[in-house]
## 1
Amino acid sequence: MARKNCRKRLTLTKKSVKLYTDDVLSAFYEAIRTNTLDCLHVPHSDVFYVRKALEIKFSPRKFTLKETEDYMKLEGWTD
C-alpha cells in the first residue's frame, strides 16, 4: 500500500525544472543518497536528441542540457 501512495505522490506533485549538471546519473545517485528524489529533474529524452542534433549542426559548439531545454521551450516545446 505504501508503494501505491508513493507512486500517486510522485505523479501528482510538481517536479523541479532546474538542471545544475549534465551528469544526470551522478545527480540521480546523489538524490538517492540525500533522499531528495522529489527535487530531481531528469530531462526528457527529446532534450538529449535535440542537443546531439544541434552539436552536429553547429560543430564544434557544445550545448548543455539546460541550454538545450531552454531553447526548446522558447520554440514552443512542452514536456
## 2
Amino acid sequence: MRKQNSIIRILILVFAVLIALLVIGGGIYLFSASKQLKSIALQPEFPETSLEVGTQYAFTISTQPSKASIKKAKAVVDDPTCSFEINDDGQAILTTGMSEGTVTVYIECKDIKSQVLTFSIVDSVARAQAEAAAQAEEQKKAEEAAAAAAEAEAAAQAAKKYVKATGDDVNVRSTNSTDGDVLGKVKKGEMFEKVEDVDDWTHIKYKDQDGYIKSEFVTEISEEEFQEGPTAEEDKKEEKKEEEKKTDTQSEEDKKKAEEAKAAEEAAKAAADAAKAAEEAAAAQAALAAAAAAQSYELLGVQMNAQEYQYVLDKVKYATPNGTNEEARQYHLEHHKSADIMTLLIAGGYRNP
C-alpha cells in the first residue's frame, strides 16, 4: 500500500513539473513573439529631394513592433560610390559620392525590407560654375557681335554714297517701278544718301524712308559736296523761285481779298434794296388796310366799316348753305333786324352798349 502511494506521488510530481515547463515555455514563446520584427520604415530627416555630392544625410529607422530588434539589419545602397550604414544611435547614414546621378537605398532585416527610396545627386557648385562660365561665354559672344556690328556700321559709313537731283519735280516712289506710290517730288540740286542701284532706278534715303528715283534724273556726288549742301547759284535759284512763289501767292491773296470785298459790297447793296422793298411793301399794306377800314358798308340800315361788316358776316356763315359772304348777307336781310346787327357788333366789341 505504501509503495502504491509513493508511485502516485511520483506521478503527480512529474505531471506538475511537465505543466510548469509548459507554462514557462509558453510564456517564453509569447514574449519572443511580441518582439518579433514585422515591418521596417525608413524616414529621411531632411527636406531635400536632390542631394549634394560628398554630403551626409540621416534617416530615422522605425519598426513594428517598436521594440523589435534590428541588430542584424543591413543598409543597402545601389551606388558603389556612396556609403549607407546604420550607426550606434539607430540611424541610417547615407554619404553621397562625388559624381552626379541617382542613388537608391533601403533597410533589410530577416527577409523584411523597408520601402525603397530613390534620390538624385547633383553637384550644385559645379553647375553654378558651369552656368557662370556659359553666361560669360554668352556675354563674350554678345560683345564680339556688337563689336562686329560697330565695325560693319563704320565700314558702311565710310562707304556711303550720295546723289544730287538733276531735274525738277522728279517723282520719288516707294518701289523701283512707275506703279509704286509717289512719296514726294524733288527739286533740282536736292541731295540724298544713295543705298544702291536697282536696274535703272536709284535707291535713296528719302525723309527717313526708302525711296526710288529714276537714275537718269540723279548724278553721284562726293561726301564733301553733300556736306557743303547746294551751291550758291542753286541757292539763288531756289530763293528766286521761293520769292516768285511768294509774289504769286500774295497776288492771289490780294485778288481773293478784292473779290471778297466786292461780294460783300454787292451783298450789302442787295440787303439795302431788300429792306427798302420790304418797307415799301409794309407801307402799301398799311395803306390798303387803312383804305379797307375807311370803306363803308350798310346792312339793314346799320352803317359799318369793312372789318365790322366781315365780322357780322362771319357770325352767320354757318347758317348759310355754302358759307359765302353774299349768302350770309342775304340771310341777314331775310332773318334779322338792325337791332340784331347792333347786338353782334356790341358782342364783338366793335360798338358800345
